Hints:
By secondary structure, the protein is an alpha/beta fold. The chain has a domain at about 265-385: Aspartate Aminotransferase, domain 1.
Amino acid sequence: MFYQLPPAGERICLAAGADAGRAPDDLFHPWQAGFFNSGTAALAAAIIAAVRRKGVHAPEVVLPAYGCPDLVSAVFHAGARPVLVDLEPQRPWMDLEQLAASVGSQTAAIVAVSLFGIQERMPALRVIAERSAVTLIEDSAQAFPKNGVESFWEGDLVVMSFGRGKPVTLLGGGAVLYRDEQFRGLLPECRHGIDGQSLQRFMFRLKAMLYNLMSSPHAYWIPAGLPFLHLGETRFHPLSGVQCMDDTRLGLLSVNTAAFRRRTLRVQSALAGLIGELARAASLVDLPAVCAVPATRALLRYPLLLDAGRRDEVYNCLNGRGLGVSRMYPAALPGIAGLEHHLGPAGTFPVARDFASRVLTLPVHERVRETDIRAIASGLESAVS
């Protein structure tokens, strides 16, 4: 009861280090960067740039039918219409045939989501995008490079989030990366929020220290047990506006980026070995393995697919032991609370619905102990055998 791993989320580094003085723009060279107040705001800014580039009156943006509802929030805020594409069977990727058929004269952008940290098939998406002069936006909110950034991303625009539970977390903020200079003038100018004042810096540090404390396995059971915090809840929330990222978070970005890159892939590697053995003997799909994710690529969470009838049983078993498992998003986007009347019937996307009913994620962050890894393996083995 008094031990509960969070599903994701690393500590926020507040101490100055060797990277403290590094300019945020230098972190992503040769990419150029624009910084915004949230990952959703950054995605909205990227879509606005794509719409301006396309120059159509009724712009459309292609999205996967399974994902975070903030994808839809960003599209709506940019004044575009979301067009959903079903998934490939047993993969976190859009169906390429449906995607190609969904791109038309009004399509301004395709959003390729690196779900769990697993990159979409960018070369194939690039062919479809270039055929119709469509901007390819790579949503990298759940993926961040361990080493060099030059070849990690392949989109025309790349969107990152520094929100709670992301690879580099600052409890807020986001970025849009680009190489083509034309996007500098197409991205929206953002209004600065309140930043740089001692009170705001103090309040952020206090919030960050509380986050670090409450995301500890020996304390996470407290916020997890408070229903008014809505931890793990997935709902649609309209985006209120696009502003600049505040100076306090910008000043900590280089330190936290360096901290992320110093972390090992110990937990991810251990789980990959255990899950690989189990997948050969049980009705379980090891998504990183079947998607050929390189061992050096950091995942935000380790995703599995189980039989729909067993997934919830396995979740209840492992969650009852405080092992940080998650069912991720509970439905295809049309079935998410708040979106029911915006995107049409959920039955249109059977593969996405099936994926939502089967996915289970395991934690890979630095707070996972060796005993936790063994308990996860034991619980999975007993639950699916």
